Give the backbone structure.
Amino acid sequence: MTVPNSPVIGPSAVPHLDVDPFAMSFFADPYPTHEKLREAGPVVYLDKWNVYGVARYAEVHAVLNDPATFCSSRGVGLSDFKKETPWRPPSLILEADPPAHTRTRAVLSKVLSPTVMKQVRDRFAAAAEARVDALLDKRSFDAITDLAEAYPLSIFPDALGLKAEGREHLIPYASVVFNAFGPPNQLRQEAIERSAPHQAYVAEQCQRENLAPGGFGACIHARVDDGEITATEAPLLVRSLLSAGLDTTVNGIGAAVYCLARFPDQWQRLREDLSLARGAFEEAVRFESPVQTFFRTTTREVELSGAKIGEGEKVLMFLAAANRDPRRWDKPDSYDITRRTSGHVGFGSGIHMCVGQLVARLEGEVMLMALARRIAKIEITGEPKRRFNNTLRGLDSLPVTITPA
Ligand code: 8QM
């Protein structure tokens, strides 16, 4: 029976929630709020920032896979580029829609292809072994600075072809980039205020003459010669690698080590079968979701799981909450290195899915293999300290002591 004057199926009310997913208290322990967001409904409205939110797997996946309705060209942070001037010139890949996105994506996809991974694999693996050698000499160290940061810093800037001088700007620059996706809170405002020297460094390193031959940077510039991209576009695509290629893997590797240190049964399984290294890294990306959130902007009025959303609205996707949605995952809150992780949205999904995912997985895999081959035990010996960022989840410090195998 139909209620008079009421449609059989129609838009339902969207629950309004009074949560700030960019507050320090939220970052300290996001999981109870993730659950609240998922349970409130398929689509919620966050009054604090006047945005829609999706935290269930199905809706996060649906939004990621409808880029015509949920666009990226108006920014993937809270700021709407149609209404506000971006803090830096927009990324030609992240903050672009088809057809513009298709061409730049193809370039980075080729630069970071499986063939290129085969060429760099031995170098990445040797650097991981060398890092583990150094850690075995120390026995007690900080797994963030001495491992999760030191390892990517020992290979990625070289792989890009950056000169030695000024590399200390790389992580601070990325930290600005990821804070800037957030709302105009203290984290974002202070990051942008202090960004000038980091921006100047990055702009300079993106120039063709500053990138060593054979590196990822030079490979991007080489596409100018075959007319795939213009000479003005190339430096901005190099900037994308500098923005997204380092801090993400630092937090990915940090997440994996933090998981393996907390869950010794999983560490033992990995030691018994090194072929589980790639899965152990992937599961850490699902479990911790180093990139926690991204926004999209609606290009038209749309109905999403019964909720009517107008044109020009920001939609916040809780990737981390989707990655632990019990509607999609068995025992979502357990770290299981043999889990079938495929479909997790830690690298996104659809046309914008992480173009550097093979580099990230390569770094994660060879590092976990090097660790598991030579170390019997990883013990956390001090209070882990969290690093607060509007988009990235990770630690500032993780004191550990290792026992050699
Ligand atoms: C996040 O500048 C960019 O193109 C860019 C910046 C940040 C990311 C991606 C691309 C997702 C890792």
